Amino acid sequence: MTLQVSPAGAVDRTDGPSNALPGQDTATPVLVEGLRDSADAKAAPADAARGHLAAHKSRYRIPNAAKDLTPLGTTTAAGGAETVRLQQKHRGVTVFGGQYVVRMEKQGGKRVVTGTSGHYFTGLSTGVTPEVAEVTAVRRAVAATARRLDRTLDTSQAPTTEAPDASKAALTGESKGLVVLPKGAGVLAYRVTVRGTTPGTGEPVLHEVYVDARSGYPALQYNALKTMTAPAAQPAAQPAADATEGATGVAPAAAALSPETGTGVRLDGIKSRLDVSYDPSTGTYVMSDSARMRATTKNVLATWDARGKSVSEASGRWPTGIKMFASPTPDFAGTATDSGAVDAHWNAAQVYDYYKTVHGRDSLDGAGMTVNSLVGVTYYGMPYVNAFWDGTKMVYGSGDEEYRPLSADTDVVGHEMTHGVIEHTANLVYAGQSGALNEALADYFGNAIDVTASATPMTDPNAGLIGENLCRTKAGAACALRNLNDGATTSKNFLGVSFGTDNGGVHLNSTIFSGALWDMREDLGGTLADKIVYKAVAEYMTPLDGFTEARNAVIAAAKQLGATSAQQNVVKRSFNAHGIVPGWEQALGVDSDTLLGKVNTTASSVGAGGGWWTASQSNDDGSEPYSVHAGRLDRKGGTKVISPNDGRYHTGPATDGKTVVWTAYGPDSVDILSRPVAGGPIKTLYSSPTDVAGLRVDKGVLVFEEYDFFGSRHVGYQRPTDKAPLFTDGRRWDTLTALPSIADGKIAYAKLYPQNGVNRLGVEVLDLATGKAVLATQLDEPTSLGQTGINSKNVFWLSDVDDNDAGQMSVVRSGLDGTEPYIVSDERKPGALIASGLTVSQDALTVVAQTPDTEYRNESLPKLWQLSTAGSAPERVSCNRGEQSDPAAGAGRQVAWLDATTGFTNLVVRDRPAGLC
Question: Is 416 labeled as catalytic in the residue annotation?
């Protein structure tokens, strides 16, 4: 999946060399090679670069380089090579991913431009005056993040016995100002950083959310934590008491320390040299390498003891009270070994030395920044098997019975530190293809540093493994996190997923590109290959590059380094062998019928009922606000546009075949609108100051879920005769209701309520004819409940009673009067699914679920599984590759859903299951 940007424009080739590659999203060329154009030798590099662009307007189509491009930084390499990075501005506002690079050489008092690359978006014309208040944008961003994370109703989400207090919210947002998303004419948006913990599980949250500044709709959202592996399901846990305290995000300054040489015993038993320091204030030796940058910035490589701290305290913030690992002598062992601190410190030095000696780069930012490593973090006291770069530091998990602390392998440390290098060079956006490229490059350099430090030949069968030294009991290949030399991963294995899954496939699809780079390194040798890839990252790539642009960058870097024709062919063959060629992103085969292609929406669900479907769609580049469409599930007749073209985002529609209801995001409120399928006036049913979701409609009765200012959730309903919605829980602050469904005048929903001083979970059915609500009988005491579904005979829901499994959930059924509970699919039986949603017809129950697995792959992505309402063996609805989500049941066994197989999101349908795949 790629970030959709503006459509292609033609490039005028009357000015410039023939080897200029046109951009697919702009009239400015994405890559220009082979230049020897004179530039101003006396000017500052950035001014000389902008002067060159201004002097060649017909080549670059940049109308005012001095005004529209601001300097981001210049790096100067040996021999006088200069790389200038320039940030595009549109009417003074930063353009997301709009970065252009000018490469120059300066020798003997003369300067020439050798090439350019990047993305300058020529089609932008949007105004830059927001219509949404900044505080509204922050509130919408936090609500959107909560909605994305809240797939269940969990006991840990229960309100306290005190009245709501916004300062104690699990999620908080901070506006970083306005940006322009380069879609079509441009989308003005607020960038909001959302931090905190996931309600129910306590997982750390660090999300970037871009809220349309005219409608208030969250148009783009992704996870900003660059983890070693895709985050796995963790057992639910309560946040630590001080998880939100002392969140300065800034490491304490290291005192003036005396550099010393020490030793440390690594987890593999090898005693290695460590560069440490003596702290006269305590009379101890600390893991602070003050020698490497002593002659320049005097910054350090420091390793901190974060044992006892949870991952939520260390992500995007600096934990309170932690100290550098210390020893009474310069020799470190014992807890310093067991925690992974010795490995972290030794490996950080190896990575620093590699970038310094091989590429002339002083630390992660190229300017001698401090390198901080936090070791031993847990998941609320439980094992944490992951590591990440959060933009300021490396954080390494404690490991578990099978995995050593994550700092115990050089390629893992190299991977995380390389994320820091990428952030200070190409700054590849951590989502979709650019995010997969970010992961691929981190893997490549982590592996290159590891095999170099260990003197492992590329011909070794284990040379391509990542994390193989983390294994405590198994062979390396059995628990390695990835294999760059698997010999099988190509673009044919590309997995289309939404940004809600692995940030759009950043880990799932990374090996396609890293595998090509690994093959190139095996054939060219590490010395040349590493220089080529580094040059491509540092001097050619820009934030929104995908696989094709990165291929071109690597090939161009090889030419610039003087690679022979034979060596350049090796580079090309490596990419060709992995299917990374121009135009590789072609649709894969599918077994479903398309109802609506390339919907280009985010966080918008599908509705079906009465033989009709409804969904939101944007235009091909995603620049237009979303419109609600509807059509017949039998594919007869055309598609109708239901919503008005009024600049608002129209999302989350539902239909019963007679009426369509949906949400409209505007500057001041989120409105629920309705319109007859046959056409007619649009009515505003309800206006919420916060956010609404989960809309359903049946025989004209609307049901929905509202999020309030404090993160609580309440189910509301509105009959055609009601002037305003009624709420099933009376909007009590001590009660939560969520995940509604409706059929034949009865509403089902999950409920979290206090009883005798204890918070309990249940599923309630409200009969609108009598006003009576009954709680369904529970066979077990659930800890979380998932989506409900209801038909004329039964109510269904997802239930979790075992917090210690891999996240499996049972499918439970009861009568409409709450009696005769029955487990349709038991989470405790072999083959149980990790379910996240369901939809039901009279005859069939369709569940969106993943299979328990140790890694992300096609088989473990969210797929649709269908059972009979009586509980037959589950069948796959479709054998399509990629992610399947948001199912909506039609009549019988028919299901419509959003399918990401092709790399785009399409609305598709099948009339019956595919069976076994």
Answer: yes
